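I hope you will forgive my troubling you with a question about protein structure. The record follows directly beneath this note:
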Amino acid sequence: MKDKNQRVKQILKSFSDLQKYFDLDKKKKLFLSLEAKTTDPDFWEDKEVATKLMQEFGDLKDQIEKFEKVKKAVQEMETAIELGMEEELFERIKEVEKMIKPLRLSAFFSGPYDGKDAIVSIHAGQGGTEAMDWVSMLYRMYLRYSERKGWNAENLHISEGEEAGIKSVTFKVSGPYAYGNLKGEAGTHRLVRQSPFNADKLRQTSFALVEVLPEFQEVDLPDINIKDEDCEWQFFRASGQGGQNVQKVSTAVRLKHKPTGITVTAQTERYQEQNRKYALSLLRAKLWLREQTRSKDTKQELKGEYKPASWGHQIRSYVLHPYKMVKDLRSEVETSDTESVLDGDLDIFIEGELSIS
């Protein structure tokens, strides 16, 4: 009986917190706004933009319906308590507990860009081959995490290491609330292990910087105007790992924004036009980040001052020797199951960061 009462108490507290974060009225207004856009006769003129809006519309509808189901189940649970219906109460408790956790997490995604796809970049720090191998490990970790979530990850640009590993890589992650989930991964990631690159297997510390940006469409940022005359384009032949599959035409693109000096590269597609679109999307995100960094009053979506990913902001430590431990330095979430984490099991860290945001 005591255990049951404790579970009921916890459910009511969780639902109360959920109501505060979820903001049902705000979500319903946004739902109606998106619904109105989908009925516009010109809605499907830009299929790419329309598809993303339809995805956002569907995700929002799903969230609202799930919230209404939880609300109904909580009311039925309270009715069962009042009427002393023990069997019914037990069923409602199990039902609500199962539904409330994923919805509670989605409620944290209240930022204006949380529902967007994410553009992730990983850069090697000092340490030569050791650091570049760490980048390749992190890259695999995020690809595996994306697979676990049922998301699609697409490589946009990769710079291979001379001997092993990756100097830097940029990839796009497409899926519901990809940016909302991954934005907390931005910062410096530290690895401590026995080096596999020397005979003495000395203990080595490596660093890699992770950057996470939302993918923007032109309509998302009307104040950021990328003028044709401000763009300097270069086209070159893309090649696969180790120089494999060299293309016969120059499909890869490098775009330099003259006013800011920002340069981006895209080489994932066989078609130059698609790589041009990816490059513009990358540039748009970089210009947005630049504006956020310049604005001292800009706040992070949910809490705290906005801090771009930089080498001064170490967020997580991965120790593989002399003991095994992955610890997040912000949420203090930790685990000794380093193998699972590096295989993409990041939920405890993602959830931990969302909970303190």
